[in-house]
Amino acid sequence: MGTSALVLATPLGLGKSNHLLNALYARAANDPRLKLHIYTALSLARPRPGSDLEKRFLQLFLDRHFGSDYPDLAYIGALHTNSLPVNVRVSEFYLQSGAMLGVSAVQRDYTSINYTHVARAMAEAEVNVIVHLVARRSGPNGVSYSLSSNPDVTLDLLDKIAASGKPRPLMVAQVHDDLPFLGGDAEVDADFFDLLLDDPACHHQLFALPREPVDEVEFSLGLHASALIRDGGTLQIGIGALSDALIYASVLRHQQNDEYRAALRVLQTCDSVKLIAQYGGMESFAQGLYGASEMIMDGFMLLAKAGVLKRRVYDDLPLQRALNGGLIGEILTDDSLPRLLACGAVAALIDQTELTRLQRFGLLPPECRIDGPLLHFANGETIGIDLNIERDRIALAKHMVGQKLRGGHYLHGAFHLGSSDFYEWLRNLEGEDFSGLAMSRVSHVNELYGGAETLQVAQRRDARFFNTCMMHTLLGAAVSDALENGQVVSGVGGQYNFVAMAHALDDGRSVLMLRSTRRSHGKMQSNILWNYGHTTIPRHLRDIVVSEYGIADLRGKSDEDCIKAMLAICDSRFQDALIATAQNAGKLARDYRLPDSARQNSPQRLRAALQPFKARGLFPAFPSGCDFSVDELRLLPALQLLKKQTASAAQLPGLIGRALVHGQPTAEMAPLLQRMRLDRPHTFAEHVYRRLLTQALRASSSM
After folding, report:
1. Any idea what the CATH number is for the domain that residue 228 is in?
2. Residue 486: is it exposed, middle or buried by C-beta count within 10 angstroms (0-12/13-18/19+)?
3. Which end of the chain is more exposed for a tag (fewer CB within 10 A), N or C?
4. Distance, CA of 658 to chain centre
5. What is the pLDDT of residues 144-153, one digit of tens each?
6. How many domains does the chain divide into?
7. Which residues pair with 72 in a beta bridge?
8. For helices 684-701 and 652-662, what crossing angle results, to 10°?
9. Are 181 and 64 in a shared domain?
10. Of 503, 441, 492, 501, whose CA–CA distance to 114 is shortest?
11. Digit-coded pLDDT (tens) for 176-207
């Protein structure tokens, strides 16, 4: 018998039907005649505990947070154990951060590609089946379906395949009742799919990202970054602790502006003050922000709840320009019609096409109709359709007073992923809150092309694109997705798209955020470097960089000025060595002296600056919410300390010896030991663990 080939595409992140994918994988694993090639990205996997202590802590948390019945992707487990069958191949363009370092098959088959080019690449790969998790709802017009988290690549892929003349892939959908039903491009009819599966056994708990803690370094960075946002502007953000800090600072700016200004004041440098005045602001968000981001996550929910995410954009260029120019507001007044006529946003002669347009955006009520030369209203009033006639123009202007614009969007996104609270928020959106959140193709969110560029530029005014990088060079290149040996940490995703878009928009700015240092192999290292063996964002696209120590504006600057700006936001422990390297390369003048104000860049200074605010209840460790119990929160610092202490094999015997002598638990530690199943140790190892943990609890509580 011959060999058959299944070239399967499945969405990144939440859009995967794990049960169905596992069944197809099992079929291929048991039949070497079947070749299975999976194209996807961000294959979500639960954390994998390492040591016995990690298992004791994590297993209960994992079962509670993800559900004890969560179906892990079988191919991920096989990749980690190097047991993927030879007839199965997995190609991903974005990886769960750090999860696949050292996994050879993944590193070999990783595809480095911009998010917006994924559809093209998969069309060329001749995908013949797409497997998609979908949401559904019942309404007056029957049952409808939503691609929910992932209209991002699916719709573009189908268009690319159709344009190439190739056969349409088999569209297989698995319904999941807990998946949020979202509109925009995501809403599709039942006949969009060739096969709709609805098996209650597949309705597992959705994968929810555990929310991360945020420390003083990250809060400091978030404060600096948040002041670069201009009221009335556009926001794109990524995910992680730095984004959480940015969101918290933005909400603080809006809701507790005096505290926000005070916190920012104790951290600011002279350069930061100038940049904030030029590109951002510190006032509350009176106009609000519009979100246009490939990923929708908890941060956007928090901004919406806080009243920050409220600027709406409209898919009508003349109307959007009138709004941008302040000619009208979202509620029409007695002078709105004359202004709309003057700028061409309303036609002087209203025909059926124009009436439909005006009704779509709320300028005229839906019951209004045209009959001959007259507009007929529900109350029996009639007005002439020729607005060149003053009488009719005045009459219609009065009729428009108080009308509220409709059809606007406060958020466009290509996929969503976040906490269980975030999914619940999405599921409960109603009315304008629901319609104002539009899921879109990634080509719409991440690029300015496709024929709607002029409208998109008008909508995305004062855009700020916030993304995280791992390292940054003094000359302006960013390292975000891989190591210098080629090992991929995550992937470029849409970061390059947003950086390039920031340069394409006259009032847009790309802001790359990074912690200035990291601890590696027990040693503190700088994340601001002279150079590095891998680049994600090239130096010719350099823009704004933010660390915990301030803001560096690199756009259009000379190499020497870039170096000076980056040195000013570098940890002071590494400045002198970097200065010497830059001078030896002839890129920095020999007589350059770093300003004294930049010589105080230390974590201790940040901690001392924010301590009074923390004492007043600001800057909590989990600003986006916490998934851990009270006991787990007490255990975490002790376990982190213990992991650090046991990293050195040479120090381990002495650590155990001290623990056996001094590690007697106190009564208040009893529930913590019980949570770790060490309240009644049976083996020698459990006795040692109990003493080690007790000593770590005592040490971490005094830190």
Report:
1. 3.40.1080.20
2. exposed
3. N
4. 45
5. 999 999 999 9
6. 4
7. none
8. 80
9. yes
10. 492
11. 999 999 999 999 999 999 999 999 888 899 99
